[in-house]
Every structure is written in structure tokens, then in C-alpha cells.
Structure prediction request, 115 residues.
Amino acid sequence: MTVDNRVDRYLDDLRSFGDQAAYIVAQGRSEHIAATARGTMLRNAGERVLIKVATVVERLPDEFTSAHPEIEWAKIRRMRNLVAHHYDHVDDLLWAALSRRIPDLVNTINHLPAA
Prediction:
């Protein structure tokens, strides 16, 4: 598999994670933070989406990320550690990532020039 094919696959993965984030957000903030089994499942799913986004970003080649400094790659990578190590204090960060940051990332990658 060529580097370009790998990058295309990773970008497709990010788009898919964007769809997953949109589904979680569509359930509503009150459902997301509810002290119910459903709320817990939505938060866990959101954390998983955020971790998957960060993992894919870590796998992108340096040549690609360097060519696109308009995306805050380092901040995206750090989200994973924050969620993994401070999972009990990230509700606002998680919601912001799911509702704004991940959709913004997907929008940006959708408008990148073709390789």
C-alpha cells in the first residue's frame, strides 16, 4: 500500500468517526450527560470516538501533517491522553470535541486539495 493510499484510508476513517460523533451529538447534550445507563453508554462511545480520532492522527505520516499546518495535529493527539487519564473530568471537553472540533476537522480534511 502506498503512502497516499494509507493517507486516503486514514482520512476516510476520520470522516467515519465524524459521522459517529454526529450521531452521538444528535442524541442531545442532556442525554449525553444524563446519570443513566444510556448517558454512560453515550459518554463511553464519545470517548472511544475521540480516542480513535487521535489514534488515526498519530498514524498520519509527518509529511502529510507538515503539509497541513492549518490543522492542530498536536492538540488532537493530546486529546487521547487527556481522555484516557482524566476520563472522570472531561465531560465538557468531550462534548466540545464531538460537537465542534471533530466536525471542524472533518470539514477541513474534506476541503484539502487532492494529493
Notes: Residues 3-110 form one domain. Helices lie at 3-26, 29-33, 37-59, 62-67, 73-85, 91-110.
